[in-house]
Write a structure and sequence with these properties.
Layout: E1 6-7, E2 13-14, E3 26-29, H1 30-45, E4 50-54, H2 57-61, E5 67-70, H3 73-76, H4 85-94, H5 96-103
Parallel strand pairs: 3-4, 4-5
Antiparallel strand pairs: 1-2
């Protein structure tokens, strides 16, 4: 079953009656995901819990997200996965504990 959740600019949920207990964190992964997070901030949704995640340190430096996570720093030294999904997955697994900590309470 799919459910559409909509936010107004106050961060309030609409269209759901049982959303009072729901906690959401919006995570943008990679170049496109980080762009979406930046766009949400520019459009006035910066008060929502927004996170940018990337394997390339320079890409994270260019985002305006309030919370940023660099994946695969040990294995890729911050130079990124180069669009290779397998390297991206390995980076996420390498930093799985950091990702779990980031999602705590969501």
């Amino acid at each position: 079953t799919e459910t559409m959740i909509e936010f107004n600019k106050d961060g309030a949920f609409s269209g759901q009656s049982n959303t009072a207990a729901m906690r959401v964190k919006i995570v943008g992964v990679g170049r496109a995901g980080n762009h979406c997070i930046d766009k949400l901030i520019i459009e006035g949704f910066g008060h929502l819990p927004l996170v940018s995640v990337h394997t390339r340190e320079q890409a994270l430096e260019g985002t305006i997200a309030p919370e940023k996570i660099l994946l695969g720093k040990r294995s890729h030294r911050g130079i990124g996965a180069g669009g290779d999904p397998e390297l991206g997955e390995l980076s996420a697994m390498e930093d799985g504990d950091r990702l779990k900590d980031m999602m705590e309470g969501s």
